[in-house]
Design a protein that fits this description.
The protein has helices at residues 3-6, 15-85, 88-91, 94-130, 133-156, 159-181. Helices cover 89% and strands 0% of the residues. It is mainly α. Helix 2 (15-85) packs antiparallel against helix 4 (94-130), helix 2 (15-85) packs antiparallel against helix 5 (133-156) and helix 5 (133-156) packs antiparallel against helix 6 (159-181). It has a single domain, classed as Helix Hairpins.
């Protein structure tokens, strides 16, 4: 058999080649967009976790201050009891301690309340940051569905699958856009 006999006639697929090119371009664009959405979602989740950690740390510090307040309050009560039990001239010596403990309690209350407020603020900021995260995750799901459908389109040459892939991509882009508008 000669080389001429083995030659296979070239069949022009025209529209299937064009569809294949569109699917390849579409898939490449979706992959790039998916990478950006995935990065933004991960970055956002890291910020949420940092804010939540900040809230927990402030809450722990506030708890320490409240515990210190309780200890000071107990000392105050012990000194007050001692004043009742001691003679008047000795009980006056304890007045300075009472003033000191009461001043400490006021200072500790202010510190603990400020830390509680900082904890609430950090938690609120974490919730605000977390709001768009679910949209980014949903957007990524729809982009992955679109890529899968585009791959099936390339294999089967079914144009209607490409339309469905495009619709899934449009939903993914819409979800991503709303996530960005929500503050992501």
């Amino acid at each position: 058999m000669s080389e001429e006999e083995l030659e296979v006639p070239h069949q022009s697929h025209g529209s299937s080649e064009a569809l294949g090119q569109w699917v390849a371009i579409f898939t490449a664009i979706l992959a790039a967009l998916g990478a950006a959405v995935s990065y933004e979602g991960s970055h956002l989740m890291n910020q949420v976790l940092l804010k939540k950690n900040e809230a927990v740390l402030h809450k722990a510090e506030a708890t320490n201050e409240w515990n210190h307040y309780q200890a000071t309050s107990t000392k105050t009560h012990v000194v007050e009891m001692a004043q009742l039990l001691l003679p008047a001239e000795r009980s006056r010596e304890l007045d300075e301690k009472l003033k000191k403990y009461n001043a400490q309690k006021d200072e500790l209350t202010a510190k603990a309340e400020a830390l509680d407020a900082a904890s609430r603020q950090a938690w609120h900021e974490a919730e605000e940051l977390d709001r768009p995260h679910a949209r980014f995750a949903q957007a990524m799901i729809f982009l992955q569905i679109a890529i899968s459908l585009a791959s099936i389109t390339a294999l089967t040459q079914r144009r209607w699958l490409f339309v469905v892939a495009f619709a899934a991509a449009a939903i993914g882009v819409g979800l991503c856009t709303t996530a960005i508008l929500l503050g992501g």
